[in-house]
Amino acid sequence: MLQEFKKFALRGNVVDLAIGVIIGAAFGKIVESLVGDVIMPVIGRIAGGLDFSNYFLGLTDAAKAAPTYDAAKKAGAALGYGTFITVSINFLIVAFVMFMVVRAMNRLLRNEETAPPPPALPSKEVVLLTEIRDLLKAR
Q1: Which letter does DSSP use for residue 117 in this model?
Q2: CA 79 – CA 55 distance, rounded (Å)
Q3: Where are the beta strands (DSSP E) in the chain?
Q4: Could you tell me which residues are beta bridge partners of residue 57?
Q5: Residue 138 maps to a domain
Q6: Which of 27, 48, 52, 59 could join 77 via S-S bond, C-beta 3.0 to 4.6 A?
């Protein structure tokens, strides 16, 4: 059983997947910082200096009176639609970056494939059939 596990764990696909997950987690933190620390303050400034993270709808009287979303969550039920907006923008940024990466990779692969492959030589049977056809046409 140990040998079987070792064979499974050392497969190329499993290692590649593990590396992809680790890089994805690190990339997620970068995007989260980009959205939270760079993009959302700019969007908030354009929208009148408002902070999206504090956009919420209090569902109880105590939550309605709370000044921040965190205080509203502690006071009672609250819908934090500002957090949803932030996460949605985060998703759009990640999707756009992944699109750009895939697009760049496709261009690189397309450039490598521009050289046409050398023409294949016809088989002996094809050459023989072509000669027979030409002889029949000549008659």
Answers
A1: P
A2: 9
A3: 57-58, 78-79
A4: 79
A5: no
A6: 59
- Spatial distance between the Cα atoms of 48 and 43, rounded to a whole number of angstroms: 9
Asked if 78 contacts 58 with a C-beta cutoff of 8 angstroms, the reply is yes
Domain of residue 16: give its range: 2-114
The residue among 77, 71, 82, 74 whose CA lies nearest residue 58 is: 77
Domain membership flag for residue 133: no
Q: What is the pLDDT along the chain (139 residues), one digit of tens a residue?
A: 888 877 777 776 777 788 888 988 888 888 778 777 887 788 778 877 666 777 888 888 888 888 888 888 888 888 888 888 878 877 887 788 778 878 988 888 887 666 666 777 888 888 888 999 999 998 8
Structure tokens at 96: 């756009």
Q: Which residue, chain included where needed, has tokens 């997950």?
A: 21
43 exposure class (CB count in 10 Å sphere: 0-12, 13-18, 19+) = middle
